[in-house]
Design goal:
This protein has a 7-stranded mixed β-sheet with strand order 15-18-19-13-12-17-16, with no helix packed on it. Strands 1-3-2-10-9-8 form a 6-stranded mixed β-sheet, with helices on both faces. The chain has 12 helices and 19 strands. Helix 3 packs parallel to helix 7 and helix 5 crosses helix 6. It folds into 3 domains: 64 residues, no CATH class; 130 residues, D-Ala-D-Ala carboxypeptidase, C-terminal domain (Peptidoglycan synthesis regulatory factor (PBP3), Domain 2, Sandwich), CATH 2.60.410; 272 residues, DD-peptidase/beta-lactamase superfamily (Beta-lactamase, 3-Layer(aba) Sandwich). The chain has 520 residues and is of the alpha+beta class. The N terminus and C terminus are likely disordered. It is 34% helix and 22% strand.
Length: 520
């Protein structure tokens, strides 16, 4: 029983010494706890390249967080300017208003053609080329000729052939239905259904199509915003983007595949682009790369134009601007975009924002957690002075706990990728955007055993530091205290034993006859 009591006493005192030393803050990790979280550069990556769960994609097009000064005055009834890669809207004039697209429709027609055909595939043209209004623009196809899909699209985009649009509609519809006997009326219905479905897939907000070429129909309409969506998707396709920038085309419709075969009917074409921004005339814009013009009496002069300068790609959509206003409007918008905005990466998925201090956590894992961006966000903003852009993080109440000194600590446990707060972006004090932040690693809940383990880990690290030496002295003092306590306990027991009985020496026993008995 005495031995058991002594063991319990020693264990209790040893634990008291460990806990006392831990509270004294020997380790450097505790020193981190007392410091506020420090911000890091947006480009610094968190440990282990934190992998963040995928989130729902942002809207395809989003207005710039700040607009540049002095936007241009343009003639167009409706217009929009976007940066192609990010979908940032840099300028918007009646962008959602219902407008008639005329031949700009053909960008969507070309997109659907590429959904169902490879560029080099051959098509035999039928009577659909005759199913167009008499005053339509034409590429000059003839029934019975063979042509590649790529060159049909050239006929669609360069001379703006309505007959080319019908060829695409017929070929796609018959392939979709696997029925070569379909009438053109049936093909047109099938194809326009595909057009409207494609528009919805691209998140169009105010569009409906009733033919493949854009000839005026009251039920055939779109808006500048939607047309920017279509043109952005169009330019993602390398074949289509190349065609958009071609000033002219001259050659065999079947690319001379049947030069030695007289039984196959083909045709030589020479087409010239109607887009004066890319041709060698007075309205040429040196950075222009495409895309498509349009005109009807109801639509007015229209153009969807693209331009690229020093790695920045812009798309301008112009509706109903009197000639030559559409070219001037496009140039003004391009100059406004190139000169008034710069690419700015606000966040990069997994990049470190700051290290947040923890509480109620497993200290063997560390006393801070990397707080990282949940998403990548690049946008275009007006040029700004260094330091004008700032960030701040607000943590969710579920995890945040504020000390008396104002230090915010995050309560364990939570897992990597948990949304723990929101980062706010400000320019000169004005909030421009907010987005979620997440934990860059798993954080486990602390226990007594993990605290003891962390203590010994920290002690081993810091044994030769000032705090480490102080810790050794503290442990030595505790050990001395334990020894003194043990001696004190033993002494008290000894005195109690003496008061409770007698102790005889050997001489006393002898005097009392305790020795060997003599014989007489």
């Amino acid at each position: 029983m005495k031995k058991s009591f002594m063991q319990k006493t020693m264990t209790a005192l040893l634990l008291a010494a460990v806990m006392s030393f831990g509270a004294a803050g020997c380790g450097k990790e505790k020193e981190k706890d007392d410091e506020p979280a420090v911000s890091a550069e947006a480009g610094e990556t968190a440990p282990a390249d934190a992998e963040i769960p995928e989130k729902e994609p942002a809207p395809a097009l989003a207005a710039a967080f700040l607009t540049a000064d002095e936007p241009p005055e343009i003639q167009a009834s409706a217009a929009i300017l976007i940066e192609e890669t990010t979908g940032t809207i840099l300028y918007d004039k009646n962008g959602m208003d219902k407008m008639y697209p005329a031949s700009m429709t053909k960008m969507l027609t070309a997109l659907i053609a590429m959904d169902y055909f490879k560029p080099e595939e051959l098509i035999t043209i039928g009577q659909e080329v005759n199913e167009i209004p008499w005053d339509s623009s034409k590429a000059g196809h003839n029934a019975g000729e063979t042509i590649t899909m790529e060159n049909v699209i050239r006929g669609l985009m360069i001379p703006s052939g309505n007959d080319s649009a019908n060829v695409v509609a017929s070929a796609v519809a018959k392939r979709v239905q696997n029925d070569q006997s379909l009438s053109f009326a049936q093909c047109e219905q099938i194809f326009t259904d595909l057009m409207n479905k494609k528009a919805q897939e691209l998140n169009a907000v105010n569009s409906h199509f009733s033919n493949a070429h854009g000839y005026h129909d009251e039920n055939h309409y779109t808006c500048a915003y939607d047309m920017a969506l279509f043109s952005r998707e169009y330019m993602k396709n390398p074949t289509l983007a190349e065609i958009a920038g071609e000033k002219r085309f001259s050659g065999d419709g079947a690319d001379n595949m049947f030069a030695e075969n007289d039984s196959m009917r083909t045709q030589e074409y020479t087409w010239f682009n109607h887009n004066m921004l890319i041709t060698d005339g007075e309205y040429k814009y040196e950075y222009a790369t495409g895309i498509k013009t349009g005109f009807t009496d109801e639509a007015g002069d229209c153009v969807t134009a693209s331009a690229k300068k020093e790695g920045e790609s812009l798309i301008a959509v112009i509706f109903d601007s009197q000639s030559p206003g559409r070219w001037d409007d496009a140039k003004l918008l391009f100059e406004y975009g190139f000169n008034g905005y710069v690419r700015t990466e606000l966040s990069r998925k997994g990049a470190l924002i700051e290290e947040a201090v923890l509480t109620k956590h497993d200290k063997t894992e560390g006393d801070t957690v990397p707080v990282v961006y949940a998403d990548t966000l690049a946008t275009y903003l007006p040029p700004m002075d260094d330091g004008a852009l700032s960030t701040s993080v607000k943590y969710n109440e579920t995890y945040a706990e504020t000390d008396e000194d104002g230090t915010i600590r995050l309560k364990a446990p939570f897992t990597k990728g948990t949304e723990i707060g929101t980062v706010t972006f400000q320019i000169d004090g004005q909030t421009i955007h907010e987005s979620p932040v997440v934990a860059g690693r798993d954080v486990s809940k602390g226990t007594i055993l993990t605290n003891i383990k962390a203590f010994f880990q920290n002690f081993a690290k810091d044994i030769f530091s000032v705090k480490g030496l102080l810790g050794i002295l503290l442990i030595a003092a505790v050990i001395v205290l334990i020894i003194l306590l043990i001696r004190l306990i033993r002494g008290r027991r000894h005195r109690r034993n003496r008061r409770g009985g007698y102790t005889f020496s050997s001489s006393a026993r002898k005097s009392m006859g305790g020795g060997r008995r003599r014989r007489y």
